[in-house]
UniProtKB/TrEMBL annotation:
Swiss-Prot/TrEMBL keywords: Membrane, Transmembrane, Transmembrane helix
CDD domains: SRPBCC_5 (cd07823)
Record has Transmembrane helix as a keyword: yes
Pfam assignment, any one: COXG
Name of the protein: Carbon monoxide dehydrogenase
Transmembrane annotation, as ranges: 173-192
Length: 198
């Protein structure tokens, strides 16, 4: 599935561009992510995901496959697999930086998160990108206040909270689930009545 997101960061273009090329700075801004290693243009790490009562831990790698410093655009490919075998995720991400940051993602997922469907994944993706943009803005904020906030971020980075897919989606999930729950309730009541009448 293809996803498109846009966001702005209140910092100079060159500063945003340099940060996006530095996994050690940018990975911790991503909710649930922990960077475990960097080797040239490749990097590795984990992403924690929470889907209702189920916790998933994706372990994987990423690589910058194209970097155009003149156009301020980059392409990276990343893939990961849940450590318990509950699914996989692969993505090709194209980023353009000018007055705003434009992110185009070609995403392929299997397993439980795929059951959410394209529409819901797009909504959750948008909120995750917004959280990322806010963290990146804090990371790039100049002065003493920024330094304090960056120190706080580094403490939080030691053990990041998982991405809560249901919690992040919030009301949209409930709106989609209510009709299903209503049908399920009707079926249960119907079955119980039939059993009582026997």
């Amino acid at each position: 599935m293809k996803l498109e997101h846009r966001f702005t960061v209140p910092a100079p273009l060159d500063q945003v561009w340099e940060a996006l090329l530095d996994p050690e700075r940018v990975a911790p801004c991503m909710p649930g992510a922990t960077l475990s290693g960097v080797d040239g243009k490749t990097f590795s790490g984990t992403v924690k995901v929470k889907l209702g009562p189920v916790n998933l831990l994706y372990r994987g790698t990423g690589e910058f496959v194209d970097i155009d410093p003149v156009a301020h655009s980059l392409v990276l490919r990343a893939s990961g697999k849940d450590t318990r075998g509950n699914g996989t995720a692969r993505a090709t991400v194209t980023v353009h930086v000018d007055e705003e940051v434009r992110v185009e993602t070609d995403l392929s997922i299997t397993g439980r998160p795929a059951q959410l469907g394209r529409g819901l994944i797009a909504e959750v993706g948008g909120k995750i990108v917004a959280q990322f943009a806010e963290s990146l803005a804090t990371e790039l904020e100049p002065g003493e206040a920024g330094d304090v906030q960056q120190q706080h971020l580094r403490v939080v980075r030691d053990e990041p909270e998982p991405i809560d897919l249901i919690g992040t989606a919030g009301v949209p999930v409930l709106k989609r689930l209510l009709p299903v729950l209503a049908v399920a309730l009707v079926v249960i009541v119907f079955v119980l009545r039939r059993r009582r009448n026997r």
